[in-house]
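EI: anyone free to look at a 156-residue chain?
SC: sure, send it
EI:
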Amino acid sequence: MLNDLVVASRELFSVLRSRVFLKCQFSWLTLMLMLALVAGCGGRSTRLTGVVTKNGEPVSEGSLEFSGSGLPMLYADIKSDGSFAAKQGMSENVTPGSYRVSWQVFEALPTAPDQPPLQKLVSPKKFSDPATSGLSVNVEPNQTNHHVIELGDPER
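SC: here you go
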């Protein structure tokens, strides 16, 4: 009895599949074409990753901002091993170009429960402004760009 049920379900599936496919063949082809266009016909993505160091040792805290003339802002949080992966909005795909980089570390200040949180900049002020940080990266298209960002002397 189970065998008869399996054979009957296979026959029903075969009939439905052929009828649906014939009626929807144009729709499936259209859908596949649209997906190929949206996916960029298999184009490669552009990503920005790297590590932040000071005196050759990984920096384990803070965040990075990348800004460039006519380019969207990129952001990255630094992980405990010093690594980062920049994002453009919510996407890891970024716009190629030349970016200036800023690095900031903030410390939360105590506030009353009904007050908005306050933060204090604890990293050297020089690095918090891309115009004075001396840090920059160039992002090439269609590849993963891995950079080592070395924080120099904040007094220079």
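EI: The two ends are 85 Å apart (CA to CA).
SC: 👍
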